[in-house]
Amino acid sequence: QVQVVESGGGLVQPGGYLRLSCVASGTIDNINTMAWYRQVSGKQRELVASIDRFANAKYAEFTRNRFSISINNELKTVWLQMTDLETEDAAVYYCNADVWSGTDRGTYWGQGTQVTVSS
User: Fold this and answer.
1) Which of 30, 63, 91, 94 fits a 20 to 30 Å CA distance from 39?
2) pLDDT tens digit sequence for 48-87
C-alpha cells in the first residue's frame, strides 16, 4: 500500500510564492516519476510539472520559469516551488507518484492541497 500526502497550500497574494511538498510512503522500492497536477472546479486536471528519479524535470508551458520541481529519492519527497503566483494559478494541487513495489508498478494520488491566489 502506498500513500501520498501533499502539504504547503494556502492563501497568497498575486506575485507571492508558495512551496508545496509531497511525501510518498509505504511499500516503495523505486520511484519512476513524481508529478504535480492542478485542477480548477469544473475543469480537467492538468499537469504542472513532473520529475523522474534522475531529476529530469518537465514543465507545463504556463509555468513560464516561475515554478521549480525537485525530488529527494531517499525521502520519497517532491517539492514544487512556485513564485510570481498569478490568480490563474489558484487551484487544488495534486501529487502523483508512479512507483515500483516489488514487481508491481502503480500510480497513486494524494488528496490535494488548495492554493488560493488573491489580494
Assistant:
1) 30
2) 999 999 999 999 999 989 999 999 999 999 999 999 999 9
